[in-house]
User: Fold this.
Amino acid sequence: MQALRAKQRENRRQLAKLSVGDEAQIQTLADEQGKTTAELAALRLLGFAALGLIVVSFVFPGLQLGAWFSIAMIVLASGFILYDTSNVLHHYRIGQHVAASLALFASVALLFWYLVLLFMSRRN
Assistant:
């Protein structure tokens, strides 16, 4: 998240420095920033929807989320893995290898957790 904000700040600085004659470079920077923000917005929306379902299942104990929720979370975790991999390649600096690996590990651990839940639900 910090790396994304740092990249967006850097893009804004570069946009401010460019002159009027550099329209192509301005458009490239604007497109890159918009794409990154759109990807993150979609993943955030899906994440908050999943969190809402989890809260509803706590409020109504009879509601079982089941295998379909696990499948949806596996898809969401896969999206987070792709997003984090893109961040590792494009946004993290060389000295930020620990932060990059932890971000990617968290996504892989989430995927593993919901795979285990899915296989355990099919066992019954």
Summary: The helical segments are 2-17, 23-59, 66-90, 97-123. Residues 2-123 form one domain. The radius of gyration is 19 Å. The chain is about 85% helix and 0% strand.
